[in-house]
Amino acid sequence: MAISLKLNGKDQTVEAEPGTPLLWVIRDELKMTGTKFGCGVASCGACTVHLNGEPVRSCQTYIEDVEGADITTIEAMSENDIGAAVQQAWIELDVVQCGYCQSGQIMSAVGLLSENPTPSAQEIDDYMWGNACRCATYQRIRAGIQRASEILEA
């Protein structure tokens, strides 16, 4: 089945069987490998992308549900002011340890800051809950989001 969508600002048409997770279309068909497979059941957040501006777990978003949608992956985040601020904060504070979860963490952080540009520590923890980090860098992730908020305010 042919599906038309916009990926990182570019119109795309992909062929995929109904029920195919968006994650596999992004990674295998469109060769955007920044979005990671973590658990396959939408529990870890490694596969987070933005669908029409909202963070979603691409492992549980099916290709037939994204016809005509605007999808943004980590590869395009630096083109977004909030995404660029988050990435700058991540670098400044050396947030990353192994890095596997970080594309999903960044995509969720951008979603949070899009909704709430000055979140409290508790609001960050509440929003980011469900984004697993095997290295347990949660304090650095929280600090990175707070720093990105400061960058955006400046």
From TrEMBL:
Stated name of the protein: Isoquinoline 1-oxidoreductase
Pfam families on file: Fer2, Fer2_2
Domain spans labelled 2Fe-2S ferredoxin-type: 1-77
Gene3D superfamilies: 3.10.20.30, [2Fe-2S]-binding domain
Signal sequence interval, chain numbering: none
SUPFAM superfamilies in alphabetical order: 2Fe-2S ferredoxin-like, CO dehydrogenase ISP C-domain like
InterPro entries, A to Z: 2Fe-2S-bd, 2Fe-2S-bd_dom_sf, 2Fe-2S_ferredoxin-like_sf, 2Fe-2S_ferredoxin-type, 2Fe2S_fd_BS, Beta-grasp_dom_sf, Diverse_Oxidoreductases
Organism: Tateyamaria omphalii
Keyword annotations from UniProtKB, A to Z: 2Fe-2S, Iron, Iron-sulfur, Metal-binding, Oxidoreductase
One annotated GO molecular function: oxidoreductase activity
